[in-house]
Specification:
With about 250 residues, the protein is α/β, with parallel strands linked by helices. It is about 45% helix and about 15% strand. It has a single domain (about 10-245), classed as Rossmann fold (3-Layer(aba) Sandwich). The chain has helices at about 20-30, 40-50, 65-80, 100-130, 150-175, 190-200, 220-230; strands spanning about 10-15, 35-40, 55-60, 85, 135-140, 180-185, 240-245. The protein binds nicotinamide-adenine-dinucleotide.
Length: about 250
């Protein structure tokens, strides 16, 4: 099979919808074998079936260390290699410092940040054994800016950025050809943002005329992820790749 990631084996967490689904579809179309994981088994299996032979579904809670261990053991047994790890699964709950509950803070850190630590820690030895590869961590514009409504979410995404840098330098020094980068989108049209916006403002954003706040499509993020997964980005390690049409660098008075 030809393609920009032909011959590679990739894990995509949270692959049953939104950006993860778009990543899985594009990587498979570009020649990779994709293991997509999710807690939502029904939707995940349906997406894998739609993609076809190149995709396999694995039920996983990304915050569970034992689920990571079973996943990586299964990938090693069934595929014999792992080249790409995309830590994509996450949840969004909003709340400023006074309104966010400690429960919500802990849940968000478990699912959005601990998961990335566990995923890299568990999968890195197999990626190294496979001759090197690429780890892509979905962070957010909220890791780079102060967003009062996302006290916990933005902090967890900043932790993902910090871990990305630590792992990138670790991998560089280890010299085994593994790279680790973070991706920082802002406002993608996915079920995550639709649900949040509907809850927050009572708006029905499935109406395209009302969805102008969210202009980036999941498929556009998937193209960046594909680039980072492919050998075209072989000299990019530790980068924070924004995909936000300039929003993180635009002062409010402009
Ligand atoms: N949508 C945006 O505007 C936006 C902006 C910045 C960053 N991001 C990040 O991009 C990534 C994808 O976001 P999305 O908008 O596609 O989200 P989404 O909510 O549409 O999809 C997330 C997927 O993760 C799965 N998931 C949730 N908890 C899980 C768990 N514990 N274990 C396994 N799977 C779990 C969900 O079932 C779902 O399929 C996330 O990391 C998100 O934080 C999104």
């Amino acid at each position: 099979m030809s393609g920009r990631v032909a011959g590679k084996v990739a894990i995509v967490t949270g692959g049953s919808r939104g950006v993860g689904r778009a990543d899985a579809e594009l990587l498979a179309a570009e020649g990779a074998r994709v293991i997509l994981t999710d807690i939502n088994e029904e939707a995940g299996r349906a997406v894998a079936a739609e993609i076809g032979d190149a995709a396999t579904f694995f039920k996983q809670d990304v915050s569970s260390e034992s689920d990571w261990q079973s996943l990586v053991a299964t990938v090693e047994k069934d595929f014999g290699q792992l080249d790409v790890l995309i830590n994509n699964a996450a949840i969004l709950e909003h709340g400023d410092i006074l309104n966010a509950s400690y429960d919500s803070w802990q849940r968000i850190f478990r699912i959005n940040a601990d998961s990335v630590f566990l995923g890299i820690k568990t999968a890195l030895p197999l990626i190294e054994k496979s001759g090197g590869g690429s780890i892509i961590n979905m962070s957010s514009s909220s890791a780079l800016m102060g967003m009062p409504a996302f006290a916990a979410y933005g902090s967890a995404k900043a932790a993902v950025r910090g871990l990305t840098q630590s792992v990138a330098v670790y991998c560089h020094k280890a010299g085994k050809g593994v790279r680790c980068n973070s991706v920082h989108p802002d406002g993608i049209v996915t079920p995550m943002t639709m649900e949040m916006a509907e809850k927050a403002a009572g708006m029905n954003l499935s109406d395209p005329a009302r969805s102008r706040a969210f202009v980036c499509q999941p498929q556009e993020v998937a193209k960046l992820v594909l680039f980072l997964a492919s050998d075209d980005s072989r000299h990019i390690n530790g980068a924070a790749m924004t995909i936000d049409n300039g929003s993180t660098i635009t002062p409010p008075y402009v």
